[in-house]
Amino acid sequence: MDSFELQNALNDFENRMLDGSDNTIARTALRRLLFGLAGSSMSGSLGDAVEILASQHNASPVASTVVLRALAVDGLVQDNLENNLARNIVSLVERGLPGFTDFLGMGKKKQTFEKLDLLRGAMAWVNTQLAPFRVSYTTLTSMIEAKKKILGALSHGRLLEFGGAYHLSEVKDAVISVYSGLEDVSKVSSTLAADLGACERAIDDARRLATQYPSFVTVEYLEPWLQCASERLHEFTHSLRGRFTAVVAQDWIGEDLPKRYPLMEEGRELRILVPFRSDGRGAAMNVRVSVASESTQVLFLNEEIALGNVSPGKFSVALDVSIIDACHSASVMLGIEWGEVGTSERQDALFEVRVLAQKSGINWEAYTYADPYSTGPAEGEDFVGRQEQVQTLVARMVRSPMEPSYITGQKRVGKTSLATAAADQAGLRDPKGKLSWHYILWGQIAHEDPRVSLRQLGEQIEEFIVGELPGNAAVPRGSYDGSLSPLMKLSAAAKASDPDRRFVIIVDEFDEMPQDLYLQGNLADTVFGNIRALTTTSNICLLLVGGENMPFVMDRQGQRLNKFSRVNLTYFNRATEWDDYIRLVCEPSAGFLEWHPDAIAEVYDLTNGNPYFSKIICSKVFARALRERDIDITGEEVREAVNLEISRLDDNLFAHLWQDGIHAPMEEREPIVLKRKRVLAALARCFRSDVPATIANIYERRSASDINEAELTRVLADFVSREVLVEENGSYRTVLPIFQLWLVDVGLTRLAADALSQDLAADAQRAEDAARVLSEELVELTKNWPTYRGKHIGPEEVRAWLNQRPGNHEQRALFTILKATRFLSEADVLQRIRSANLTVLGLVEAPVRKKLTERRNDIVITYVDGEGKSGQKYASLYAEENLISTTAILPPSSFQEAYQRHIEQHGVPKVIVVVDDMVGTGQSLAANMKKFHDKNLASLSAGGSLLFVFALLATDEGQKYILQALSELEYSSIDFRAGEIISAADNLFAGDKGIFATPDERDRAKTVATDIGATIYRNAPLGYGDQALSIVFPSSVPNNSLPLLHSRGKGSGPQWQPLFERLVN
User: Domain PRTase-CE: where (predicted)?
Assistant: First the structure.
């Protein structure tokens, strides 16, 4: 016998013992088991089997335990002097359970009959040890107080030795998990709903042990204890009734959904998100949604959605739809029912939802190459907002005498746009209408020789002024070698030529000038002396623009530039500039994109109002709209666009945050930049690890030992003063939220590539950083996933799931597993069900219907995996696809009675269909079919109907096993089909490298999966039968898939949270 057959033989023996079968029947089952353990054919008496086992070199612990179990029943093991049964039993048990027999004191007995008497009493000691399981605990508290006694008994070394055959270590793990759940529930914390669900799952999992391994341990001790635990749990939660109410309400106003969808595109498949909220103090328990629509133009694919428990707050129901015909709207009724903690009563609510279409007839080609969100300087009407700063600058330009100014702030906050917009406005508001302006970018005149740069600056200003004067004006030409003084003469000549003519000179990137032009020295003193002189003229106004170094430049020549007024430009202020910000987002794409308020707020939250990065995000949203042909923009679309693009943003977009604001000679700047990068890398590691970014944590995660704590503190203080970081309660975060997202996603790797270049010992750290799963990878992975239990599992959920493992290499391994995961959508399920159409297969004739509403009753459908399991759901779908009456779906728990009633009303059916979702090893279905067969054999034989077993999927191994098992049943009219056969190659770790790039990656991933899986199912960490599949159905995951996908960890520590959690029935 193989291990599965031996377990079945043990189960059969235990079932005979438990149901009080006649000793002859029980003895036959015992003989079969012992001969199987001996590896011999079942030929001979019970004594012969024991003799074979006693003679083997390695005595069987399982056989020893089973014999002790049998000895406790009077007359079951009959002594036989001819085959020395007593002596063989003693010999077998002493060698099979040496520690246990020593504990019983057999070493002190010399006679065989004395030793046999001790062995006959062994079960009495076992029952005494397990007695605490049979106590009737009256409260949850008393049950928890018994934990020490129960776990102490299960931890007894001799009991564990004896109980190996009965999976006592698994029983112990299950009891620990249940106790962990009971203790969490008793605390009545904010996670009560999750705790209650976890506890119910632990009880449900423990009960499966009694089904999988029926024995006196699981049936007579574990099951009563679990029943007591379940009752005390429900009594306790019932006592909380009224304290944790829940109300499900729509999270939009009116009937129409705020977001419009492209319903006018025939043949398109969409996912419609319907926003709800769960109000109240408690979670909405076991939320279920029914979907009904009479629309013939839009097909709603979800009919029933099981959401599980929903915590207080906002949530969405995802509806998968297919556009049959273009339409302007589609209505659907959503019926939602839910429970509350502490009561078995269910609440319900009905919501009428209308989905409106987006505008049609859009010329998509016309927008293909459009760039409405250009990040270049905005001029004229393209400049949005900043009215207060604009008016300030305009007033200084148009008044007489004109007042010089300088604009400073971080790069990419709109300084250049502000300067040019103000100059434009000043030209329009000049009383004489003769104010003109000229823009000079320092890069246009930059030269390695500062004197050349100075000369070109003077020449550009002169050329501009001369060009604005009448052609016959006599103006002197100047030489600007080492001085701008000729501009004074030019100013006077221009005034003489036209007293009303005035000039505004904008010099951008002024702080990029060579240090020789502003640090102390003859040339610098001359230049700034000239600039001061120009500010005294009445017809020339200087407007200087610079970044974070601008104050430093101005301070070096402070006495000479005291006439300049400073304008500090920062991000848009939500409180005072919100209307301007809305214009910044909406106006460039007006007439094309429809921006919802939550989308605008999302852009602001990601940028903190930074105009440059706001435009960057808007441009990505615009590109997404073109790509997806979806012009209705909500916060969801903004988040999706950012998640996709964050990994692609170039370093140069953020470089000013670590490169600017360094007031030091050029040769001293690079070491400062390097240290800044190292600090940002350490900060990013804190963000990735989800630990507070305190100085201590940042210091611990630095990769360069040459940064001491004092230097780290100085760099952080510098970042705070420059408003790159903000410090709150000792923890640091970025002022620009999108910068933090970039750091965590890809910035750390890119910064570390430079910042660690001098650290030869940092190779491992760099490799770890580089293994990070990027946001764009998560978006690409999840964008085409079908919904699972009515939810779209997106990048945020996957990131949270990955983050349960600390290392990037481990997260990369889990990500590779997800990439190989196979999803069956509702449409895929229906397609496989259609492949088993009984008419197409020739098993029944096509029905003759007088009305379209008629359904056939000559076919009966059932399922054998239990109530509330996936088989029940797919039985309903099978009935609908085959036009079978729902009254012909018969529950397995009362199949005989329901079957007889069906025959009385409709006659003997032609086919009895048994529906299942997945056949992995085939063992579970085979065992369930045998139970169904044995229980209903008389009814099957009397009717002679075909018993047709159908599974959506089956492995090649499972198909072979179930076909063999069905052929061994007495009833012969049985057939099996599967919608699809899966090969052994679908095992994620099959072959040399499985789905992975290298054998090493495969081994690493298998280790991770095994480590996680062992905390869920210790004996099946890679799924039932170690098949290591990765398959997800629309509302469940088969147990042959990796447990890390579908089940929570057990035990008292942090529990693994699955991505596709299976519901508790």
Answer: 798-1062
